[in-house]
User: Which sequence fits this backbone?
């Protein structure tokens, strides 16, 4: 059996009070007994003195003292009245042999007086012995004995019987109020102890409930215990610990939960969790873009039509999982579909088993395959470029020599024409033809140079380059092109932006191409914004944004293709070059465009520090 602190406290207080009461009662009763005995003795002695006095009067007046004693009515009355005194049972006068001469009870006259213990002994005994005698089961009678001397002769004795039984009754009567007082004192003690326990234990209850709440995982539990005592100290200690715990927990939460959640939320794949009843429990933002936020908490059958691939696949998974029994932990299933925008999608479902092996839910993942397609086309493009590079390098060499020869011979031709007809009167138009041919040959030479530049990646000389400084360098060229189209140029490249790891001349070429394209896209004026900023994953982002004509959806996929141009005088080399340069720098390029609104090219390049 377990006692609560409250019970223990009550028992302890009651025991202390009880002990005090019992001790005091014992002292009280022994004192009472002693006083009672003394009183009885005094009373007996008083009585025997009175009797002796009377006996002496009777005896001196009579020649036969014993018969005078026996017959004196005064003495008899005195003896008989004695029994009305408290605790006195009898009184008698005996001769020296112990034979009763006169007695309060006349029947005993002439008999031998029974021997009885002397009260004086009891009065002088210890308190414990006194109580033992008074409360003995066969309580008897003691006597006060007084010898009678007449003319120096032992004449007999006076005996007064004192009943300890009567004494006991007297004691008991006196004891009753003491016992009642003790009982009341004990009851009051119990009550006070209970109230004190309530008062003292309140902080313990407060602490206990605080600990319980903390154990349940509540955050920021604080206790309101008045300061000033040990419980107050305990309370402020508890509050400190609780706060520390909350901080630790929130740090833990920040360290473990949030990244997982943000990972799922930022996933390009659409992810949903469906319970066995077919209700969607969770949908990440990518999924919610397809279903709308209200689909969470609703059955799939409400959100999707009967032949929607998501619903079909999830229901099939639930079905197969049920039929396969609980020992299987997951059933992957895959299917492909196309969504509203015609993008290819890969669907995956995982049946999730609980700790008991039962089905807890189905995870649905819908992956957009168009990014794979983009990657694949990039790969194919790179391969094409490599083979094209080899081819063009060869051709360029083959073409360059004849071109050089043609230039030399054109110069010779011009000299000869001048020599044949210094006035140029007959062949005046011939020199114009030479000039046109020369111009075309130069253009051809430029194209070949371009080819060679485009296909020679080993010339790449990487070093830390500040994009801001590079932009400032190309600004005059860009500005002259911009002025022609009434375009305003805005540059925002903070010097705090990290340098990139790049080949300076190539990067200059790429930025120039993008800026010139942008100006050309704004024939009626606009704003060209060039900006740089540090980007995640150790990169720097360069944006070239215009407010020009934009690029139509059908052209968007082709602008990086070699020779693709929509301009009458265009070569279609600019963006191919940019793409190639960015690729050689291990960077990324993408484009966003709204026809009629403008275009933004975004180039990501590795930081110099990262590369080092
Ligand atoms: P070119 O400039 O010789 O036409 P590019 O490779 O530089 O060749 O550009 C290819 C095509 O991409 C352009 O003809 C044009 O249609 C489109 N283009 C490039 N930049 C932009 C832009 N900033 N705004 C609109 N269209 C653009
Ligand atoms: Mg161009």
Assistant:
């Amino acid at each position: 059996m377990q006692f609560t602190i409250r019970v223990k406290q009550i028992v302890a207080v009651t025991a202390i009070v009880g002990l005090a009461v019992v001790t005091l009662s014992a002292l009280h009763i022994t004192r009472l007994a002693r006083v009672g005995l003394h009183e009885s003795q005094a009373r007996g002695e008083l009585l025997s003195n009175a009797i002796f006095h009377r006996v002496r009067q009777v005896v001196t007046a009579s020649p036969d003292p014993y018969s005078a004693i026996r017959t004196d009515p005064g003495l008899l009355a005195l003896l008989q009245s004695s029994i009305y005194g408290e605790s006195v049972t009898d009184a008698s006068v005996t001769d020296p042999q112990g034979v009763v001469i006169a007695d309060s009870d006349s029947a005993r006259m002439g008999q031998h007086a029974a021997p009885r213990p002397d009260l004086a002994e009891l009065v002088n005994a210890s308190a414990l012995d006194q109580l033992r005698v008074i409360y003995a089961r066969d309580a008897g009678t003691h006597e006060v004995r007084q010898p009678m001397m007449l003319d120096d002769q032992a004449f007999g004795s006076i005996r007064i019987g004192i009943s300890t039984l009567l004494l006991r009754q007297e004691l008991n009567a006196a004891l009753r109020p003491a016992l009642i007082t003790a009982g009341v004192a004990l009851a009051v003690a119990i009550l006070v102890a209970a109230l004190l326990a309530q008062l003292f234990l309140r902080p313990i209850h407060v602490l206990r409930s605080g600990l319980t709440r903390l154990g349940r995982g509540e955050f920021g539990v604080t206790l309101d215990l008045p300061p000033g005592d040990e419980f107050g100290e305990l309370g402020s200690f508890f509050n400190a610990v609780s706060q520390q715990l909350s901080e630790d927990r929130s740090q833990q939460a920040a360290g473990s939960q949030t990244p997982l959640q943000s990972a799922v939320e930022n996933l390009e794949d659409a992810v949903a969790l469906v319970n066995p009843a077919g209700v969607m429990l969770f949908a990440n933002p990518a999924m919610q873009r397809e279903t709308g936020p209200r689909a969470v908490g609703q059955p799939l059958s409400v959100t999707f039509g009967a032949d929607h691939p998501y619903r079909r696949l999830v229901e099939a998974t639930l079905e197969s999982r049920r039929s396969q029994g609980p020992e299987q932990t997951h059933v992957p299933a895959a299917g492909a579909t196309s969504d509203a925008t015609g993008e290819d999608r890969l669907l995956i479902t995982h049946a999730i088993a609980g700790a008991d092996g039962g089905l807890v839910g189905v995870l649905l993942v819908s992956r957009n395959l168009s990014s794979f397609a983009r990657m694949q086309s990039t790969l194919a493009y790179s391969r094409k470029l490599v083979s094209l590079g080899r081819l063009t390098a060869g051709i360029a060499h083959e073409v360059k020599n004849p071109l050089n020869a043609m230039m030399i011979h054109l110069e010779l031709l011009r000299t000869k024409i001048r020599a044949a007809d210094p006035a140029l009167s007959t062949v005046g138009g011939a020199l114009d033809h030479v000039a046109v041919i020369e111009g075309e040959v130069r253009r051809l030479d430029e194209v070949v140079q371009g080819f060679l530049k485009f296909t020679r990646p080993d010339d790449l000389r990487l070093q830390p380059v500040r994009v801001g400084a590079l932009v400032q360098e190309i600004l005059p060229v860009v500005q002259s092109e911009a002025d022609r189209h009434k375009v305003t140029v805005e540059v925002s490249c903070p010097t705090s932006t990290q340098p990139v790891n790049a080949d300076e001349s190539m990067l200059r070429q790429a930025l120039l191409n993008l800026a010139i394209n942008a100006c050309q896209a704004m024939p009626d004026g606009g704003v060209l914004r060039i900006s740089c900023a540090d980007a995640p994953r150790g990169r720097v982002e360069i944006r070239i944004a215009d407010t020009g004509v934009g690029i139509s959806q059908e052209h968007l996929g082709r602008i990086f293709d070699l020779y693709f141009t929509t301009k009458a005088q265009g070569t279609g080399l600019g963006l191919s070059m940019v793409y190639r340069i960015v690729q050689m720098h291990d960077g990324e390029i993408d484009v966003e465009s709204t026809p009629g609104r403008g275009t933004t090219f975004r180039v990501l390049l590795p930081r110099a520090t990262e590369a080092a």
